[in-house]
């Protein structure tokens, strides 16, 4: 094969980066039917050739992708174990809408797109109003955890792995079901530090402080955005010092 027919990209699974190649001639066609979601800086499509992956494209000039890749490379240089929170990154591809980045698509064991913490909060509020449970509301056999339970587990793993997140938003964290009675939290966006010299990448003491501050800010934002969702007892339980 013509060696010029390929482009090489760094790819990562849980923080480990390796090199893969994609054929330039195989431009991926992205259409409306593959649209998965759209945010302020990115638009996300289901990979047309592999529904277990998604393709992210920047909507405007944004450094989000470079920031995340720099963070993943720093984890590799430190030989940190693969993260259970981070999604796998498979490299960049050429699409009909421009260069896109291929990531693991977070889905439950049954093929459904996993729900975000934001979605679960809103479902729990609706269930309270209707005097039922989220599980009954969704007519599912999945053992949907209470949001507080999900947040407590998220906090534990986040502090263990010390993942650097500049701004924590409930829409960026998903509850992924591996089985009907087993789930884990995944981070799907907004990773890394925007600072010029991110010392938090290399010194655990500063990383732990960063995570603690961002977490407490996150809990305060939940109080503000979803007024009345958390009880006073839950607020104190979720905060950290």
Structure report:
By secondary structure, the protein is α+β, with helices and mostly antiparallel strands. The chain is 32% helix and 25% strand. It has helices spanning 64-77, 117-129, 134-138, 147-161, 204-225, 232-238; strands at residues 6-13, 16-23, 35-38, 42-46, 53-58, 89-95, 98-104, 115-116, 173-179, 182-187. The longest helix has 22 residues, at 204-225. The radius of gyration is 19 Å and the shape is globular. The chain starts with 5 loop residues before the first strand and ends with a helix. The model is unreliable at 1-22 (pLDDT under 50).
Please describe the topology of this protein.
Layout: E1 6-13, E2 16-23, E3 35-38, E4 42-46, E5 53-58, H1 64-77, E6 89-95, E7 98-104, E8 115-116, H2 117-129, H3 134-138, H4 147-161, E9 173-179, E10 182-187, H5 204-225, H6 232-238
Antiparallel strand pairs: 1-2, 3-4, 4-5, 5-7, 6-7, 8-9, 9-10
């Amino acid at each position: 094969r013509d060696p010029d027919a390929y482009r090489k990209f760094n790819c990562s699974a849980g923080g480990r980066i390796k090199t893969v190649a994609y054929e330039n001639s195989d431009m991926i066609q992205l259409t409306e039917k593959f649209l998965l979601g759209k945010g302020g800086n990115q638009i996300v499509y289901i990979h047309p050739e592999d529904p277990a992956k998604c393709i992210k494209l920047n909507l405007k000039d944004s450094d989000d992708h470079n920031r995340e890749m720099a963070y993943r490379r720093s984890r590799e240089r430190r030989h940190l174990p693969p993260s259970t929170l981070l999604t796998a990154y498979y490299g960049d591809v050429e699409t009909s809408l421009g260069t896109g980045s291929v990531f693991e698509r977070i889905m439950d064991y049954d093929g459904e797109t996993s729900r975000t913490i934001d979605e679960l909060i809103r479902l729990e509020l609706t269930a309270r109003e209707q005097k039922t449970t989220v599980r009954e509301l969704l007519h599912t056999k999945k053992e949907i955890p209470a949001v507080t339970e999900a947040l407590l587990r998220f906090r534990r793993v986040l502090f263990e792995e010390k993942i650097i997140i500049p701004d924590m938003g409930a829409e960026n964290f998903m509850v992924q079901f591996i089985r009907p009675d087993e789930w884990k939290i995944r981070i799907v966006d907004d990773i890394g530090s925007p600072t010029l010299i991110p010392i938090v990448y290399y010194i655990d003491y500063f990383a732990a402080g960063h995570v603690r501050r961002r977490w407490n800010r996150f809990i305060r934002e939940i109080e503000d955005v979803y007024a009345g969702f958390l009880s006073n007892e839950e607020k104190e339980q979720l905060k950290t010092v």
